[in-house]
Every structure is written in structure tokens, then in C-alpha cells.
Write a structure and sequence with these properties.
This protein has a 4-stranded antiparallel beta sheet with strand order 3-4-5-6, with no helix packed on it. By secondary structure, the protein is mostly beta strands. The chain has a domain of about 150 residues: Methylamine Dehydrogenase, Chain H, CATH 2.130.10.10. A hairpin with a 2-residue loop joins strand 15 and strand 16. The protein is globular and about 50 Å long.
């Protein structure tokens, strides 16, 4: 007897006007009018995070239908990558065109959760545009990659408010993707894909031929 095919589900896709209307298309800086470009995006069940060319992170809470804004102090520079994580606390990592990386620990209204916005900075290692970010599932580890091939590991202690960072790997070409699970970091560059075993500090290349 032939199996009965499951019914097709049709979905309508449309622009998120409620989100886009909350982000300005231009800002005024002195006598100049600067166009705002949307440069990075990440989503999960709780938030939609949008990075911009003016260094502003727009974070939309899907449950409360509220938009909040976060930025870096100092000069305005384009945000190149954002990565959300929901664990015990809600976290968002942000990378910029000059190599700055920041982690925002978000405020939660739930009992026992974080009640004050905190920011952690990864400083002094990346000198070029951030191209990839990856969290560990518990939010205690963040890996960041840039377009010069550097990969930085940041150990976060949210209770103590500490962030310790170190260079763990350096590739000859730009990092294009990072993913972390079970002490193994998947790294893709413009030239190759590899598995980096964080405990042994060893590398296992996927495939034998470089990318063309």
C-alpha cells in the first residue's frame, strides 16, 4: 500500500516592516546626512539582531515587540557579524570592521536571570574585519575569526565579569565560517576546511585538495 504524502504547507514571506520601520534609514552627524546600511543579521526564538554600518546594533525582542539599541563607544564603524545565544542568560556577540569584538549580556525579566546589562570586550588581538563568530552552548566560550585568518578564543566568566582572550590558530586566508561543539571547532577559510581540537591543540584538515 502506497504511503500517503503529507499535505503541503504554504507560507507567505513578506518584509518585516515592524522591524525595518524601527531602524532609521539615515542619521544626522554634524552637517552631514549618513545613510544607514544593514550589514549583519542573526535570529533565534527570542530575538532578531541586526548590525548596521553606523556601529549600532538593533536588537528586536520577539516576545515583547520592543526594539533596543546597543553601540560601541568611540568612532562609528560598520558591524560585520553578530551571533546570538540563548542559554541561562541571553548573549549577543558583535564584531566590527576594525576587529573589535564585544559581548552583551542582556537583561532578563525572568527570576534568577541577569538584571543588569553588561558588556565584555575582546581587545588587542584582532586588527582586521571580523568575519565569523561561534559560541559554545553554555556561553562560556566564544571563538572569533577575521579576514586575515586569525582565530581568537575568549573564555567568559559571566559571574565574575571576566573575559580572557588568546590567539589559538592563524590561517593564511580569510576565515569564512566557524562552528563549535564538543571541544571541536570547525573552521572554514577561503582555502580549506579543518577541524581544530581545542584540548589537544591539533588540526585535522577536511579533504586533501585546497579550494580553487
Amino acid at each position: 500500500m502506497a504511503s500517503v504524502a503529507s499535505p503541503a504547507i504554504f507560507k507567505e514571506f513578506c518584509p518585516l516592516y515592524y522591524l525595518l520601520n524601527a531602524i532609521p534609514t539615515k542619521i544626522q552627524k554634524g552637517f552631514r546626512s549618513i545613510v544607514v546600511y544593514l550589514t549583519a543579521l542573526d535570529t533565534n526564538g527570542d530575538y532578531i539582531a541586526v548590525g548596521s554600518s553606523i556601529g549600532m546594533l538593533y536588537l528586536y525582542c520577539r516576545h515583547l515587540n520592543q526594539m533596543k539599541k546597543y553601540n560601541f563607544e568611540g568612532r562609528c564603524e560598520s558591524i560585520t557579524f553578530v551571533k546570538l545565544l540563548s542559554c541561562f542568560d541571553d548573549l549577543v556577540a558583535v564584531g566590527t570592521a576594525s576587529g573589535r569584538v564585544a559581548v552583551f549580556q542582556l537583561v532578563s525579566s525572568l527570576p534568577g536571570r541577569n538584571k543588569q546589562l553588561r558588556r565584555f570586550d575582546v581587545t588587542g588581538i584582532h586588527k582586521s574585519s571580523i568575519t565569523a563568530l561561534a559560541w559554545s552552548p553554555n556561553g562560556m566560550k566564544l571563538f572569533s575569526g577575521d579576514d586575515k585568518g586569525k582565530i581568537v578564543y575568549s573564555a567568559l566568566d559571566l559571574d565574575q565579569g571576566l573575559c580572557n582572550s588568546s590567539l589559538v590558530l592563524e590561517e593564511p586566508s580569510s576565515i569564512v565560517q566557524l562552528d563549535y561543539n564538543q571541544k571541536v571547532l570547525l573552521v572554514s577559510t577561503l582555502q580549506r576546511t579543518l577541524l581544530f581540537y581545542t584540548e589537544e591543540k591539533s588540526v585535522n584538515q577536511v579533504g586533501s585538495q585546497p579550494r580553487k
